[in-house]
């Protein structure tokens, strides 16, 4: 099976909102088509959800749909979520920010020798550079 989009690894924390209740997860990877999330419990295919990434500026929120879920270890699964068509512009912006953050994390690890987590890098990158990141209206 071929991939339609390039996947970018990231472990930034996200929330999946299901029936109005947010659930904390960690992203596995992201592409323009959607995201892959570490989870403890699979959701049925075609379940409509809301994806939130509070660390991004502005906070990212988009509707999505469960495309697949596979257990790969005891109490650990990967959940594939696609974005709805109207969310594509937001997805592009989110992917750009995540790529900048991951690049920053790798550079900071190399330059300082410190092992930054994706979350630590996101917080630091946002504090230093998010104000320079073009808004979706620019």
From TrEMBL:
Record's Gene3D superfamilies? predicted glycosyltransferase like domains
Q: Give the top-rank taxon of the lineage listed in the UniProt record for this protein.
A: Bacteria
Domain PilZ stretches:
3-86
GO molecular function terms noted in the UniProt entry:
cyclic-di-GMP binding
One Pfam match, by short name? Answer: PilZ
Q: By what name is this protein known?
A: PilZ domain-containing protein
Organism whose genome encodes this protein: Marinobacterium aestuarii
């Amino acid at each position: 099976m071929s991939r339609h989009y390039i996947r970018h690894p990231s472990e930034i924390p996200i929330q999946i909102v299901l029936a109005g209740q947010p659930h904390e997860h960690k992203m596995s990877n992201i592409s323009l088509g959607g995201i892959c999330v570490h989870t403890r419990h699979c959701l049925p295919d075609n379940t409509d959800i809301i994806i939130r990434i509070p660390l991004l500026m502005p906070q990212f929120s988009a509707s999505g749909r469960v495309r697949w879920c596979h257990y790969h270890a005891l109490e650990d699964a990967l959940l594939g979520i696609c974005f709805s068509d109207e969310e594509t512009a937001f997805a592009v912006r989110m992917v750009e920010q995540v790529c900048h953050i991951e690049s920053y994390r790798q550079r900071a690890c190399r330059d300082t020798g410190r092992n930054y987590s994706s979350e630590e890098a996101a917080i630091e990158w946002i504090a230093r550079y998010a104000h320079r990141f073009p808004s979706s209206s620019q």
